[in-house]
Amino acid sequence: MSDDDAYERADEMCAAGNALFVDEQYDEALEKYTEALALAPRHTDALVRRAQTKLSLEDAVGALADADAALEIDSTHDMAFLRRGAALLALKRPAEALVALEKGEAVRGAPQFGGLLRKARVALAESGESAPATAVDTATAVDSAPAAAAAAAVETLPRRAIVPLST
Asked: Burial code of 117-130, b = ≥16 C-beta within 10 A, e = fewer?
């Protein structure tokens, strides 16, 4: 079977899984998504839908694994961030959930993040944990570590050594 045929067949398995999911036949839906992934292991939609199904079956650890696998393949898959956030909330990890949900919302600005974002903020406040940097701040901090080190070095200089740029 060619890769295109395998992916097309995986799409069919996903469609069958979706129909089963809507009918709340979660175990059967899980099987269909797993079959799709056997045919096309990098099928991000199958991973994301299987993550949602695992959440419905109260398998937050498995859902998190699937959401993370989808994000390894496509780091801009907004629904993978949504499933990751939901799984982290179920695992009582609200700070991580908030970061995942903010990243997902930043990708597409999808309205479906609103409810889970509110839930994550409430859970975070109730947990007593300190709020994490926002997703944008986190991404900037990771991507600009050398710049942050340079900025910190500048802060240690005597103020008179910093000459403002003319405009």
From this structure: bebbeebbeeeeee
What single letter denotes the amino acid at residue 102?
E
Identity of the amino acid at 121 = R
pTM recorded for the entire structure: 0.76
pLDDT tens digits in sequence order for the chain, 167 residues long: 788 889 999 999 999 999 999 999 999 999 999 999 999 999 999 999 999 999 999 999 999 999 999 999 999 999 999 999 999 999 999 999 999 999 988 887 767 777 888 888 898 888 887 777 654 443 333 333 333 433 343 343 333 333 334 44
| Residue found under tokens 């900025």 | 151
Let me know: does 53 contact 26? Beta carbons within 8 Å: yes
